[in-house]
Design a protein that fits this description.
384 residues, alpha+beta, Ribosomal Protein S5, domain 2, six-stranded mixed sheet, 13 strands, 39% helix, globular, binds adenosine-5'-diphosphate, binds magnesium ion
């Protein structure tokens, strides 16, 4: 089928991105995180086929891929060329769902997204969840949202080869309008937490793409595992770093060689910040929550060392801008975005000042936009 043709599709899967408000680099350490799904989306239009072939048009890439659900292991298109990088996500989801005994039909489909890629807002997990929700819908919804999230994480870990935690897929599956999710990444128990009234979440994109630095992420993960092994000798009851208290890490810090002592200290204090944050949010204390965001940024910068000069600049500019309550880098770091909590009435002035300051400091434009906590992935029929 030529790109110029515009086929009609029967269904739409609408999958949000996500922003993490607090609890950074704790999702692979058994800690609690506070993400929200956002009103930026992957829109996947699809119709089932009667065979097992996939025909996907990735409109933002201006590319198409044709492959068979019967030869996913080969990672090849029907013409024998390798699957393009973006097609690994739907193919990986197909494989994970198949391994979970879901019978899949082929799809004719087309997708586009307004979630910036590689900026820490989980465009990849949104692509995964849109396809997972599509196949689940066509099969009569046998899997609940959490199961879909786990299967999508499995797809990204095993098929795509990115060692991500569960937070991204989980928040995109289970997001709730107007709320953040308090997710225990050890048990996958979660509950909603209201966002402070009269505030807005504002995202500032540094324009730096973090996909260049998977090794830095893997090195931090390995460092946390090493710290856990050493601390377990002194604290035999712990299963993850989230079980260690700030007082314990402070008294044992000399046992840990550099830099893993700093990594462990970040994780332990960050888990503690999330615990404090829940009480503050429930008491509608936006100022107190904003302070925790600032502490989180400093810890990611000075201890976990995943910030960049551009992210530090965005954070510093934010603290001086009108209406600012809190600012920090969000996502894995090494580039990407900051997330800001801003008084609703001053959002426009905030954005104007940070944009102007960033241009003056770096010579680059930052995309800065407000967003709202949104509902998780959903599928609708668009047959008239
Ligand atoms: P993040 O999830 O933080 O945005 P990743 O590096 O994990 O960054 O995922 C980005 C990748 O996801 C892209 O390189 C691409 O393969 C895929 N992807 C995301 N959005 C789209 C899109 N709109 N069209 C095609 N592929 C996409
Ligand atoms: Mg991703």
């Amino acid at each position: 089928m030529a790109l110029a043709e515009t086929p009609t599709y029967q269904y739409l899967a609408h999958a949000p991105g996500r922003v993490n408000l607090l609890g950074e680099h704790v999702d692979y350490n058994g800690g609690q995180v506070l993400p929200a799904a956002i009103d930026r989306h992957v829109d996947l239009l699809f119709s089932p086929r009667t065979d097992r072939l996939m025909h996907i048009h990735a409109r933002d890439m201006e590319q198409e891929a044709f492959f068979s659900l019967d030869t996913l292991e080969d990672r090849l298109c029907l013409d024998g060329t390798p699957l393009p990088g973006w097609a690994l996500y739907p193919a990986g989801v197909a494989q994970a769902l198949t391994l979970a005994d879901l019978h899949l039909t082929g799809l004719d489909c087309s997708f586009t997204s307004d979630i910036p890629m590689g900026s820490g807002l989980s465009s990849s997990a949104a692509v995964e969840l849109s396809f997972a929700a599509a196949w689940n819908y066509l099969a009569g919804d046998p899997f609940d949202r959490t199961r879909l999230a786990v299967l999508c994480q499995q797809a990204e870990n095993q098929y795509v080869g990115v060692n991500c935690g569960i937070m991204d897929q989980f928040s995109i599956a289970n997001g709730q309008e107007g709320y953040a999710l308090l997710l225990d990444t050890g048990t996958l128990q979660f509950r909603t937490v209201p966002l402070p009234p009269d505030t807005a979440i504002v995202i500032a994109d540094s324009g730096e793409r973090r996909s260049l630095n998977h090794s830095g992420y893997n090195e931090r993960r390995a460092g946390c595992e090493q710290a856990l092994a050493i601390l377990s000798c002194q604290l035999p009851g712990i299963r993850t770093l989230s079980d260690v208290s700030p007082a314990q890490i402070d008294s044992l810090i000399t046992e840990l060689p550099a830099p893993i002592g700093d990594y462990a200290k970040h994780v332990v204090y960050e888990c503690d910040r999330v615990r404090q944050a829940v009480g503050l949010l429930e008491a509608k204390n936006a100022v107190g929550f904003g302070q925790l965001m600032l502490e989180c940024h400093r810890s990611l910068r000075d201890l976990y060392k995943v910030s960049t000069p551009a992210l530090d600049t965005l954070m510093e500019l934010a603290t001086q801008a009108p209406g600012s309550l809190g600012a920090r880098l969000t996502g894995a770091g090494f580039g990407g975005c900051t997330v800001n909590l801003v008084r609703e009435a001053e959002v426009e002035a905030f954005i104007r000042q940070v944009k102007t300051g960033y241009l003056a400091a770096t010579g680059k434009e930052a995309a800065i936009f407000p967003c709202h906590a949104s509902q998780g992935v959903r599928v609708t029929s668009i047959i008239p």
